[in-house]
Amino acid sequence: MTATSPAYGSLGCVGVIVPPANVTVEPEMVDLFPRGLSVIGTRLPGRVTKETSVGLRERFIEYNRVLPAVADSFGGLPLSALGLACTGSCYLDGPGGDDKLCADLRAGGTQHVVTAAHALKELIETLGKRRIGLVTPYPAWVTELAIKYWQASGFEVVHSLELPNVVSLYEVSTDSVVATAREMLSAGADVILLSGTGVPTVPAIEVLSQTTAVPLISSNLALAWWILCTLGIGLRQSPSPAMHALAKWLPKDAARVPKER
User: Fold this and answer.
1) What b/e string do you get for 59-94 counting C-beta neighbours within 10 Å, with b at 16 or more?
2) What is the Cα–Cα distance from 163 to 172, expressed in whole angstroms?
3) Which residues are 159's β-sheet partners?
4) Is 259 a member of any domain?
5) Domain count of the fold of the chain
6) Assign residue 86 a region: left if phi > 0, alpha if psi is -120 to 50, beta otherwise?
7) CATH of the domain at 26
8) What are the DSSP calls for 152-202, one per residue?
9) Distances from the Cα of 224 to the Cαs of 84, 188, 218, 221, 258, in angstroms?
10) In this structure, is residue 256 part of a structural domain?
């Protein structure tokens, strides 16, 4: 049984688990999902003050440690699907950690669960691509984890670029994402991956997809794609030009349900 109401959620109710200061995931999901598919967010723990600063690696470790409790924090709400919208913490344990993260996501009783990294992996495989151009908002050590994750997943990272002058990834501009992705176009990649759920990638993909000769995907776009396919909702029902641009790259049989972990 899934949660619906006469006014909201006629197509179902989707949960997303996001880092505490992330202000991007829910708005982008609303833009990517058709009307009638509700988005309910919950926060991973985080306490960063002037007096107490927890390093990013430690935060990722904590995110993964408490994931079962956070997944259970929806209070029994019967979700249609649940996604972990934090790509960096997925990279921490490599592709070998995907199964455990997805098992932890099921702690609240939701059947259809996915992590941002697994949704990206499924999408790249469905597109039939192997050569990734990776754009990240991370410090160098997280970008290196991301490269190792994609290599261990069987892909070739032909080039990686970090977004310039990132103080907070939640403050990255669309112009910066567009400019960096365009810089990647000459690298010989057959898919450009914009990693990071906190970066506003949907507006950038809408701009870039008008002229780019390779598909552009992002953590949030992949999460939305996986959820729509899993729930049997056609991509054309999405109001987003970014989702429509993605649909043009997918093979005709791509309506198959993505693999569950």
Assistant:
1) bbebbbeebbebbbebeebebbbbbbbbbbbbbbbe
2) 8
3) 133
4) no
5) 1
6) beta
7) 3.40.50.12500
8) HTT-EEEEEEEPTT-S-GGG--HHHHHHHHHHHGGG--SEEEE--TTS--H
9) 12, 27, 10, 5, 12
10) no
- How many other β-carbons are positioned within 10 Å of the β-carbon of residue 211? 8
Q: For residue 135, what are the β-bridge partners?
A: 161, 194
Alpha carbons 23 and 135: distance in angstroms, whole number: 20
Task: Give the length of the chain.
Answer: 261
Q: 220-256 b/e with 16+ CB inside 10 Å = b? A: bbbbbbbbbbbbebebeebebbbbebbeebbeeebee
Return the beta strands (E) in the chain as ranges.
12-18, 37-43, 81-84, 113-115, 131-136, 156-162, 191-194, 216-218
| Amino acid of residue 190 | D
- Encode the chain (261 residues) as per-residue pLDDT tens digits: 455 555 788 999 999 999 999 999 999 999 999 999 999 999 999 765 443 345 899 999 999 999 999 999 998 899 999 999 999 999 999 999 999 999 999 998 999 999 999 999 999 999 999 999 999 999 999 999 999 999 999 999 999 999 999 888 888 999 999 999 999 999 999 999 999 999 999 999 999 999 999 999 999 999 999 999 999 999 999 999 999 999 999 997 665 556 666
C-alpha distance from residue 221 to each of 66, 85, 103 (Å): 25, 11, 22
Which domain covers residue 94, as residue numbers? Answer: 12-249
